[in-house]
């Protein structure tokens, strides 16, 4: 699933064109961020809202370490992103590992793709992290609330929210 079926946006006209495309240099940027997040002093500066998610390929068995922006919500960690290839390797029964600049911790993960969950959870993510919201094509209304038409558009274009529950 890369995109939802195009339908009129029930929340009105989006304020953005949607999530930013992946840059050609994203692999190099991710490698630099992973390195910075492993350095004790720099990880506190760089990693205030970044973690490294370790996911194993379901077919290849290859291990992927992906820097992700996150939001704490109760005892869970929320990650708003598009349905990237690495996201397809996450399923409810397969544990992942997450590092916040320290040792990796096992976590249970669930990818939310349904409209209701994405609208509700992405609003939490956007309120907490405006940089992540902007990267994912979510603007804000004059009152400071995440724009629902933008969240809907992000969902239409493959937006998902991953919920991690560290063990």
State the main characteristics.
seven-stranded antiparallel beta sheet, Pnp Oxidase, Chain A, F420H2_quin_Rdtase, Split_barrel_FMN-bd, Nitroreductase family deazaflavin-dependent oxidoreductase
Q: How would you describe what is shown here?
A:
This protein is of the alpha+beta class and 167 residues long. It has one domain: Roll (Pnp Oxidase, Chain A). It has five helices and seven strands. The protein has a seven-stranded antiparallel sheet with strand order 2-1-5-6-7-4-3. Strand 1 and strand 2 form a beta hairpin. Helix 1 packs across helix 2 and helix 3 crosses helix 5. The longest helix is centred in the last third of the chain and has 14 residues. It is globular and about 45 Å long. It comes from Nocardia acididurans. InterPro entries: F420H2_quin_Rdtase, Split_barrel_FMN-bd. This is Nitroreductase family deazaflavin-dependent oxidoreductase.
């Amino acid at each position: 699933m890369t995109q939802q079926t195009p339908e009129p946006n029930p929340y009105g006209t989006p304020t953005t064109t949607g999530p930013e495309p992946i840059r050609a240099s994203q692999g190099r940027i991710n490698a630099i961020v992973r390195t910075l997040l492993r350095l004790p002093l720099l990880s506190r500066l760089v990693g205030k809202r970044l973690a490294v998610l370790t996911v194993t390929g379901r077919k290849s068995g290859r291990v992927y370490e992906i820097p992700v922006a996150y939001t704490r919500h109760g005892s869970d960690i929320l990650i708003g992103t598009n349905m990237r290839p690495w996201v397809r390797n996450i399923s409810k029964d397969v544990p992942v590992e997450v590092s916040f600049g320290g040792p990796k911790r096992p976590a249970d993960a669930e990818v939310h793709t349904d409209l209701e969950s994405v609208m509700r959870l992405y609003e939490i993510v956007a309120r907490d992290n405006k940089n992540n919201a902007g990267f994912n094509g979510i603007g804000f209304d004059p009152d400071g609330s995440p724009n629902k038409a933008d969240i809907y558009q992000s969902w239409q274009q493959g937006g998902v929210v991953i919920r991690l529950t560290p063990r």
